[in-house]
Design a protein that fits this description.
Blueprint: E1 5-8, H1 20-32, E2 35-38, E3 43-47, E4 50-53, E5 58-60, H2 74-78, E6 88-89, E7 109-110, H3 125-144, E8 155-163, E9 166-173, E10 181-188, H4 189-206
Parallel strand pairs: 1-2, 6-7
Antiparallel strand pairs: 3-4, 4-5, 8-9, 9-10
C-alpha cells in the first residue's frame, strides 16, 4: 500500500497520555493504512501557502483548516488561578483549585499526571464529564450537609475511528502510577457500531 498521507504532531507519539505501549499500537495501525506518522514536529509558523515546523521543515498546502491556540479566559488569568502552563492546576481527585471552594472542570483544568508521559491530561470530553459529575456531587453534598466526598478516579475511554467501518477502543485509568492502566481493543465493526450508538445517544439526549 502506498502512502496515503502524513500526520505531524508535536507530541512524541500517538495518544501520549495512554503511554508508549498504546501509542505504539496506534502507530502500527496508522502504518498499516499507509499513513506516515511524524512525531515531535511542532508547527511554528503559517506562511503564504506553506507551513513551517521546528527544525526547518516546510510543507506546502492548498487549503488549510487551522484551530487557534487554546487559552484560559482573561478573567481566569487575572484572578490568579492559572500557573505557568496557562491552565488552572487542580486536585486530581476533587478538581478543587488552590482557592478552597473554587473548582475547575473541563478544558481549563490542568490535571497533573503521576506517570510523566504528559504533564497533564489532554482536553477530552470524557474527562470533562467525569470532572463535572464529581464536582456536582460534592457541591450537592456540601449544600445538603450530608453525603460522602466523591473522588474522580482518572478513568476514561474513547473510540478511535480507523475507517472501513471499523473503530478501536481505548479505556482505563489514565492517572494510574507508575504508568496508565489502559486496555486497547483492536479495530472491529462491533466497536464502530458502539461508537455510532454512543454518538446518537448523546445527540438525542442533549440536542
Amino acid at each position: 500500500m502506498g502512502e496515503l498521507g502524513t500526520i505531524r504532531k508535536a507530541e512524541g507519539g500517538p495518544v501520549p497520555a495512554a503511554g508508549p505501549e498504546i501509542g505504539g499500537q496506534v502507530a502500527e495501525l496508522l502504518a498499516a493504512r499507509g499513513i506516515n506518522y511524524r512525531p515531535k514536529r511542532k508547527l511554528t509558523e503559517i506562511g503564504n501557502g506553506e507551513l513551517r515546523f521546528e527544525g526547518g521543515e516546510t510543507v506546502p498546502y492548498d487549503l488549510l483548516f487551522c484551530v487557534p491556540p487554546h487559552r484560559a479566559p482573561r478573567p481566569v488569568v487575572d484572578a490568579g488561578l492559572t500557573d505557568g502552563t496557562g491552565w488552572v492546576p487542580v486536585n486530581a481527585a476533587t478538581l478543587e483549585t488552590k482557592i478552597p471552594g473554587v473548582y475547575a472542570v473541563g478544558d481549563i483544568a490542568a490535571v497533573a499526571t503521576p506517570n510523566g508521559y504528559v504533564p497533564f491530561l489532554p482536553k477530552a470530553g470524557v474527562f470533562a464529564h467525569g470532572h463535572a459529575e464529581t464536582v456536582a456531587s460534592n457541591l450537592a453534598a456540601q449544600i445538603k450537609g450530608k453525603g460522602k466526598t466523591r473522588r474522580w478516579d482518572g478513568h476514561g475511554a474513547c473510540f478511535l475511528e480507523v475507517g472501513r467501518g471499523q473503530s478501536a477502543f481505548v479505556s482505563g485509568n489514565f492517572l494510574a502510577a507508575p504508568k496508565p492502566e489502559i486496555d486497547f481493543r483492536m479495530p472491529g465493526k462491533v466497536w464502530h457500531m458502539q461508537k455510532v450508538l454512543f454518538e446518537r445517544h448523546w445527540m438525542k439526549r442533549w440536542f
